[in-house]
């Protein structure tokens, strides 16, 4: 895998919000994240898909919250004191993503990013924008448009 300059590098200057999911680091472009909030009560929605935990009332706004572990096929785990909700702007709509923990903001140097990795036909990584390398660790950079739009598409299909 050869490192390339990418839209991610240009759009956010390589800055990503890094979170922990199932013991692995995942990144969200900093420009896509609006805020990080502590875990709070999530009201379930009847007949919602398993990854859609429900809704929160954040300062008068109703925001759907998805469990990223379930959405990405990682074994679910109950929230811990380190769990938090990342509020993201997905095409003008605020959505929440439950993660295991916030690691922080990381800046990836241009040579430490692989755009849209190709891991073979058997490995589906459509939800990844790329992979960042930070020292000896890998950071899977999420393509929120694909993560959330696939979610919304599935919700629509299940509602029909």
Write the layout of secondary structure elements.
Blueprint: H1 7-12, E1 15-21, E2 24-29, E3 33-38, E4 52-58, E5 61-67, H2 68-71, E6 84-90, E7 93-99, E8 101-107, E9 113-115, E10 128-134, E11 137-142, H3 144-159
Q: Would you mind describing this structure in some detail?
A:
The protein has helices at 7-12, 68-71, 144-159, and strands spanning 15-21, 24-29, 33-38, 52-58, 61-67, 84-90, 93-99, 101-107, 113-115, 128-134, 137-142. With 160 residues, the protein is α+β, with helices and mostly antiparallel strands. It contains three helices and eleven strands.
Quickly describe the structure.
The chain is α+β, with helices and mostly antiparallel strands.
CATH architecture: Beta Barrel
Physical arrangement of strands within the biggest beta sheet: 8-1-2-11-10-9
Q: Give the strand tally.
A: 11
Give the class from helix and strand content and strand pairing.
Answer: alpha+beta
Portion in strands: 35-45%
Mean pLDDT: 82
Could you spell the SSE succession in H and E letters? Answer: HEEEEEHEEEEEEH
CATH topology: OB fold (Dihydrolipoamide Acetyltransferase, E2P)
Q: Output the radius of gyration.
A: 16 Å
CATH class placement: Mainly Beta
């Amino acid at each position: 895998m050869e490192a390339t300059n990418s839209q991610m590098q240009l759009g956010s200057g390589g800055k990503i919000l890094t979170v922990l999911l199932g013991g692995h680091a995942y990144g969200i472009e900093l420009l896509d994240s609006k805020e990080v909030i502590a875990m709070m009560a999530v009201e379930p929605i009847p007949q919602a898909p398993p990854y859609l935990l429900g809704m929160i009332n954040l300062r008068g706004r109703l925001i759907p919250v998805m469990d990223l572990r379930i959405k990405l096929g990682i074994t679910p785990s109950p929230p811990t004191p380190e769990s938090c909700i990342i509020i993201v702007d997905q095409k003008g709509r605020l959505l929440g993503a439950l993660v295991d923990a916030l690691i922080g903001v990381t800046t990836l140097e241009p040579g430490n990013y692989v755009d849209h990795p190709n891991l073979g036909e058997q490995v589906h990584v459509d939800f990844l924008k790329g992979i960042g390398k930070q020292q000896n660790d890998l950071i899977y950079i999420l393509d929120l448009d694909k993560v959330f739009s696939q979610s919304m598409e599935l919700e629509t299909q299940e509602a029909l």
